[in-house]
TrEMBL record:
Catalyzes the first step in hexosamine metabolism, converting fructose-6P into glucosamine-6P using glutamine as a nitrogen source. It is an enzyme of class 2 (transferase). It comes from the Bacteria. Homodimer. It catalyses: D-fructose 6-phosphate + L-glutamine = D-glucosamine 6-phosphate + L-glutamate. Its EC number is 2.6.1.16. Its main location: cytoplasm. One of its GO terms (cellular component) is cytosol. GO terms for molecular function: carbohydrate derivative binding; glutamine-fructose-6-phosphate transaminase (isomerizing) activity. The keyword Transferase applies. The gene is glmS. It comes from Actinacidiphila glaucinigra. Residues 2-217 form the Glutamine amidotransferase type-2 domain. This is Glutamine--fructose-6-phosphate aminotransferase [isomerizing].
Length: 604
């Protein structure tokens, strides 16, 4: 949610920052801005409503400088506009701030500043930070920023420039990510490594409550109270090419197609054939502790919540531990009973989602043990949890999640197998699941070869104004996720229901103009699912089934290969990613950057 990038060194800064912004655009894309320290002193800023390309078009030819900061915005306070775009400068144009996060006490601070005569140029909460820094009487820039942040409540990742201190950029973090990129006589600051990876793979991730001063040939980190901290640069696992589109038209398409190798990666090095189990290095949970777990509560948002639902059913099925998944955003506000024998699991692709992070912090405050199932290594949630399983899907750039969903579910299957084999899962069942897991990459590839057929179906269903998705038990989270995917990128209204609930209300919606996608695995519930399709047919509803064999009641069937019953949901979701993709494409949608959304929701 909002991307920040900054550079200090010897190179021409504007092209570097614009390139960084392009790479961060998935974090927010309603307006963008850039400020540089001009060669003859002073700060020069350009801002534009719209995408980074709009900003690029406005940057003058002569915009030379070697230090600058930039921002791409996802609006919270104030509509997308030139004025509300960051960086925010003070009245004299000496201080510039880019901010990711939310200032909770912005109205109160704004009122005080206005009473003191400050004239605001935007409606944003972020602008208060600029004026507080500008009005500080402290001597150093670091001290000015520190003084300002002392009275700011809320979350922030910020980068600050000051015309009187042209040799440095000061950054600070509280709740919104900030990484430093360490180069040869040049330094970067960004909210994500994506912005700097084509220049350096050496990074330092700031902790909450940490600040940094970047100079061209040096950096130092310290707490907001001024105590020096040690920061040893780490090498980023991924190469710059992992953030490219790799010949595909969209990131979403690339990421759907990458799933066979992504699943292979999450399995790699973890399977133990001798004991028909898996090794999960970062779990920090010994066998005795695992045996003592009485419940599992999984917390995530959006797609990760859906992956958690499948995870819960895997854990309950394979380890026989009662488990459920709940939206983290709801959990944290209902004063939940925190039970010492419950294992809590936070799920997040980005590892940044504020609602999930806040739920983890609340749980830890109450003494709970919390594990993470996270994709981004070293992210806030990964660091806040007591251990966990990395999902290893690789960078996911498209706002909608595809390969991360699949890999998260596979990571849950590994965890469930691990817990099951410590408890009562037999060697034979362990072996059965391992064989199923090993078959997944090839089976996913087989599904991907049906893309042309799915594209034709999508062209047909793209005319629908509204669609119903149904599934039973394991199929229900698949229906939920498929319906979320469709609405996120095609803007077609979609509902997801357990097939068993149809006749309790939603059946009233069924008519020829409301097609249904039915998840129909070949399992013990096959006949029940067929009965639900009968009910829909009897009301002249059209049906697209995702099934292991042709379904006569359906108008169309997409066939998926059969795996073990427990692992079938992983495969059944894949053709529906393609269906959502091609439906959105047929409707001419901006697939990688759907309206109103951003990838990392770092605000409440
Ligand atoms: O990074 P996270 O997994 O924590 O993100 C949670 C949701 O915001 C995210 O899954 C969202 O639902 C996606 N747009 C799904 O495609």
């Amino acid at each position: 949610m909002c991307g920040i990038v900054g550079y200090i060194g010897k190179r021409d800064v504007a092209p570097l920052l614009l390139e960084g912004l392009q790479r961060l655009e998935y974090r927010g894309y309603d307006s963008a801005g850039i400020v540089i320290a001009g060669k003859s002193g002073g700060l020069k800023a350009v801002k534009a409503k719209g995408r980074v390309r709009e900003l690029e078009a406005r940057v003058p030819k002569r915009f030379a400088g070697t230090t600058g900061i930039a921002h791409t915005r996802w609006a919270t306070h104030g509509a997308p506009s030139d004025e509300n775009a960051h960086p925010h400068l003070d009245t004299e144009g000496k201080v510039a701030v880019v901010h990711n996060g939310i200032v909770d006490n912005a109205s109160e601070l704004r009122a005080k500043l206005e009473a003191d005569g400050v004239v605001f140029a935007s409606e944003t909460d972020s602008e208060v930070i600029t004026h507080l820094i500008a009005r500080s009487q402290a001597v150093s820039l670091e001290e000015k920023v520190r003084e300002a942040l002392k009275i700011v409540e809320g979350t922030y990742g910020i980068a600050v420039m000051h015309a009187d201190f042209p040799d440095r950029i000061v950054a600070a973090r509280n709740g919104s990510p900030v990484v430093l990129g360490i180069g040869e006589k040049e330094m970067f600051v960004a909210s994500d490594v994506a912005a700097l990876i084509s220049h350096t793979r050496q990074v330092v991730t700031l902790d909450d409550g940490e600040m940094a001063t970047l100079k061209a040939d040096d950096f130092r980190t310290y707490t907001t109270s001024g105590t020096r901290t040690t920061a040893t640069p780490e090498t980023v696992e991924w190469e710059a090419a992992s953030y490219d589109m790799g010949g595909h038209d969209t990131y979403m398409h690339k990421e759907i197609c990458e799933q066979p190798e992504a699943v292979d990666r999450v399995l790699r090095g973890r399977i133990d054939d001798k004991f028909s189990t898996v090794h999960l290095g970062g779990l920090n949970l010994d066998a005795r502790e695992a045996r003592g777990i009485r419940r599992v509560k999984i917390l995530g948002c959006g797609t990760s919540y859906h992956a958690g639902m499948i995870g819960a059913s895997l854990i309950e099925g394979l380890a026989r531990i009662p488990a459920d998944s709940e939206p983290a955003s709801e959990f944290r506000y209902r004063n939940p009973v925190v039970d010492p024998d419950t294992l809590y699991i936070a799920v997040s692709q980005s590892g940044e989602t504020y609602d999930v992070l806040a739920a983890v912090q609340e749980l830890k405050r109450k003494g709970a043990r919390v594990l993470g199932v996270v994709n981004v290594v070293g992210s806030a949630i990964a660091r806040e949890t007591d251990g966990g399983v990395y999902v290893h899907a690789g960078p996911e750039v498209c706002v909608v999640s595809t390969k991360c969903f699949t890999n998260t579910v596979v990571a849950f299957a590994l965890l469930a197998l691990h817990l099951g084999r410590i408890r009562d899962l037999s060697v034979a069942d362990g072996k059965r699941i391992i064989e199923g897991l090993r078959a997944l990459p090839e089976q996913i590839q087989e599904i991907l070869t049906q893309e042309e057929d799915i594209k034709k179906l999508a062209a047909d269903y793209a005319e629908a104004k509204s669609m119903m998705f149904i599934g039973r038990v394991r199929g229900y989270p698949v229906a939920l996720e498929a319906s979320l995917k469709l609405k996120e990128i095609s803007y077609i209204h979609a509902e997801a229901y357990p097939a068993s609930e149809l006749k309790h209300g939603p059946l009233a919606l069924i008519e020829p103009a409301m097609p249904t996608v039915a998840i129909v695995p070949d399992d013990s519930l096959l006949e029940k699912n067929r009965a639900a399709m009968e009910e829909i047919k009897a009301r002249s509803g059209r049906i697209l089934a995702v099934a292991h064999r042709e379904q006569e009641k359906a108008d169309h069937t997409i066939l998926v290969p059969k795996n073990e019953d427990e692992l079938d949901p992983i495969l059944m979701g894949i053709p529906l990613q393609l269906l959502a993709y091609h439906t959105a494409l047929a409707l001419g949608r901006d697939i990688d950057k759907p309206r109103n959304l951003a990838k990392s929701v770092t605000v409440e």
